[in-house]
Structure formats: structure tokens, C-alpha cells
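Quick sanity check, Proline dehydrogenase:
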Amino acid sequence: MRIISKPILSRAAGVPLSLNSSFSRNITRALATGPPKINFNDSETAFKAKSFPALIRGYAVFRTCLVRFLVNNAESMIRQSYIFLGDSITDYTLRKTFFGHFCAGQDTSDMGPTIRMLESAGIGSILDYAAEADIVEDEIRPLTPPEVQ
């Protein structure tokens, strides 16, 4: 039996070893000490690591999410933006607003500063690889359990 000393998920996700070893130390420390005692109901604690522009962006993003028309038509509006404004302007705008608020980054070099900022505030990070694809309705088939033989 072969024992793997590094977390498999981190290497599979392409996380550099510097983040990988930091991740391992944090997991070991968290398991030894238990979860941190952070009160997210205390606004000073919850927002102290955020810059003023990041707080304004968050406020604007969440206020925009309250507008039902924008939420219901977001996909169509983004598609139209790609057509009329082009890829560069649309991607830049999304990166600086919604994507920037909800995601740490597009790759490991983008994520590093966010992970370090959260870590300095005593908040851990969970890295998740999101792979998405558009599926044509004809390609969807119901899941059936495998036959028992």
C-alpha cells in the first residue's frame, strides 16, 4: 500500500506547493485546536479585512441582486453585452463586479492574495474547481441505477 503525503485534491486542482504546504499547516492546526471562534454577526469582525472599495462593490452587487428584472434577465443581458460591447469590456466588467465579489480568482495567481487576506483575518478557504458546460436538452437523459447482476 502506498501512502501519499500531500493532499491529493490540492495537487489535482493545480494549487502550487507553497499554498499546498500552507493549506496542510492550517488543516493540522484547525484539527488540533477546533474551529476558530469568529462571530460573523459582529460587523467589525466580519468586514475588518475588507477594503472600502470592496465593501462598496459588495453593497452594489447585492443591491443589484435585489432587482428582480435584472436577475431574471441576467443571462440574456450578458449575451447582449458580448454582442454590443465585445468580450474585453464585458469580461472586465464582470470580473470587477459579480465574479470579483463571489470568486477568489480565475487561477492560483489570482487567488493567492485573497486567500492570504482571509487567512490574516482568521478565515480559512475552500478551493473548488468548477467545470461548466452548456448541455443541449436532447443530450439530457434520465439517470438510472445500474442493473444488479
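Posting the structure with no commentary besides this: The chain has one domain: 15-125.
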